[in-house]
Write a structure and sequence with these properties.
Keywords: FAD, Flavoprotein, Monooxygenase, Oxidoreductase. InterPro entries: FAD-bd (IPR002938), FAD/NAD-bd_sf (IPR036188), RIFMO-like (IPR050641). Its cofactor is FAD. By secondary structure, the protein is of the alpha+beta class. 32% of the residues lie in helices and 24% in strands. The protein folds into 2 domains: 243 residues, FAD/NAD(P)-binding domain (3-Layer(bba) Sandwich), CATH 3.50.50; 103 residues, 2-Layer Sandwich (Alpha-Beta Plaits), CATH 3.30.70.2450. The strands form 5 sheets. Strands 1, 2, 8, 9, 10, 11, 19 and 20 form an 8-stranded mixed β-sheet that branches. Helix 1 runs parallel beside helix 8, helix 2 packs parallel to helix 8 and helix 8 packs antiparallel against helix 10.
Length: 444
């Protein structure tokens, strides 16, 4: 039986994941309270998915809810280790952010836990979330061009002045609006490499309980990250992720045997015993969840438009607006900041539009300037993150082999990369610069 939806709302948010919930909370904080959040699924996904939350994201969230509620549910990591194929290299020291942020660390917390914390606050604030409720079409309202009729699968119609698409890479809102979603460099998704992600238990810890480990292998890379025991009934669980060599095709739900092979070939299992600190094979004892992913990039042409060019306002946040490789743990963070920064701008537009409806001759372009500026800033930031994550992925996946130039000059780019990292490490540049880049504080 369908849930009865309201006939009207100022803002309809399509998608009740972290980005949709953050948009709602930021809007309410800034005085916009006529909000409806809908999602096509009956319940949120109960898998960990994105796990890294960076300082700039926590700072943005802390503007409208106590971000400490999320921090308390995760693992705080200030330092990590990187194996370059031969030795450990210095990595970022997030303690360098001390004094510049309340959150001088990377937080590892499962996405469903972040979503649950945000959802609890949404419920406390009285914001209405309706599940399942699937939007299938958006059409201009015949009586008011600034209103969009959202048509739902069960035939219900909600009239909304603003539609926010927080509905993922296959966004219905973006598709109906006709907004293109392409790799900004023209790369074909068919050429994208694949990766594997899984939450597992191991027979012994590959690193300290709060220390991420990155392994650079020939043509591939892997990560081993600690997850909060509180999310797994007190069990010590590790997130393993691997970017595979070009042409590798992992199964959709990789079994333990396949994951063990990756651990042995590209992960901490490939480290020599002296580096692992044990002669015992590093073995997966249980697989809690596993999936594969495509390391592709795309960006919407714009995260702000009007339906059919002249109708109601449409906005995109999170994966609906951009996607990119998971290197650096930037994806969910960028989306959450999209949503947090949209709140005050959209709330101001709601107020200005209400005032303008009682006036004459207020140009729409003038009303929309704030949203256009937000869209331009978030689009530019998305493009920068796409470029950065692509470059990180490329450097992490170089093959350890000689490449001959002009038939006479041999170059091993892995050795060049490793030497460059060593120089940056011993000079302290890595410890100082990387935390600012990854945390998002350098450019939110």
């Amino acid at each position: 039986m369908s849930t009865q939806l309201p006939s009207r709302t100022d803002v309809l948010i399509v998608g009740a994941g972290p980005c949709g919930l953050t948009t709602a909370l930021s809007l309410q904080k800034h005085g916009c309270t006529d909000i409806l959040v809908v999602d096509s699924h009956a319940a949120g996904d109960n898998t960990s998915r994105a796990i890294a939350v960076h300082a700039a994201t926590l700072e943005a969230i802390d503007e409208f809810i106590p971000a400490q509620r999320i921090v308390d549910a995760g693992v705080k990591a200030t330092e990590g280790r990187m194996w370059d194929g031969y030795r450990f290299q210095p990595w970022a020291n997030f303690g360098a952010l001390e004094g510049y942020t309340k959150f001088p660390f990377i937080l590892f917390v499962p996405q469903h836990v972040t979503e649950r914390v945000l959802g609890d606050v949404v419920k406390e604030q009285g914001i209405r979330v309706v599940r399942p409720a699937k939007v299938v079409d958006l059409v201009p309202n015949e009586q008011d061009p600034d209103v969009t009729n959202a048509i739902f699968e069960d035939g219900q119609v909600v009239q909304a002045r603003y539609i926010v698409g927080a509905d993922g890479t296959k966004s219905t809102v973006r598709s109906i609006a006709g907004i293109s979603y392409l790799d900004p460099d023209g790369d074909d998704i068919a050429d994208a490499t694949l990766g594997v992600v899984a939450d597992v238990t191991l027979n012994y810890a590959p690193s300290a309980p709060t220390e991420p480990l990155m392994v650079l292998a020939s043509g591939a890379f892997s990560l081993c990250l600690p997850l909060p025991a509180s999310s797994y009934a007190g069990r010590t669980v590790w997130r393993i992720a691997a970017g595979l060599p070009a042409g590798a095709t992992p199964p959709h739900a990789p079994p333990t045997a396949y994951l063990q092979g990756l651990l042995d070939a590209y992960g901490p299992g490939a480290l020599p015993p002296r580096a692992r600190g044990s002669t015992q094979r590093l073995a997966i004892t249980d697989t809690l969840w596993a999936s594969r992913f495509v390391m592709a990039s795309a960006a919407a042409a714009t995260p702000f438009a009007r339906l059919r060019g002249a109708g109601g306002v449409l906005l995109l946040v999170g994966d609906a607006a951009h996607r990119h490789p998971p290197t650096g743990g930037q994806g969910m963070n960028l989306g959450l900041r999209d949503a947090a920064f949209l709140g005050p701008v959209l709330a101001a537009h709601v107020r200005a539009s209400a005032t303008a409806r009682g006036a004459q001759g207020v140009p729409r372009a003038q009303l929309d300037r704030g949203l256009a500026d937000w869209a331009a800033a978030r689009h530019a930031r998305a493009l920068k993150v796409i470029r950065t994550t692509k470059a990180m992925l490329a450097r992490s996946s170089w093959k350890d082999e000689l490449v001959w130039y002009w038939g006479v000059v041999p170059v091993n780019w892995v050795r060049v990369r490793n030497f460059g990292m060593w120089v940056l490490g011993v000079t302290g540049i890595t410890a100082r610069v990387v935390p600012w880049d990854l945390s998002g504080l350098k450019g939110r």
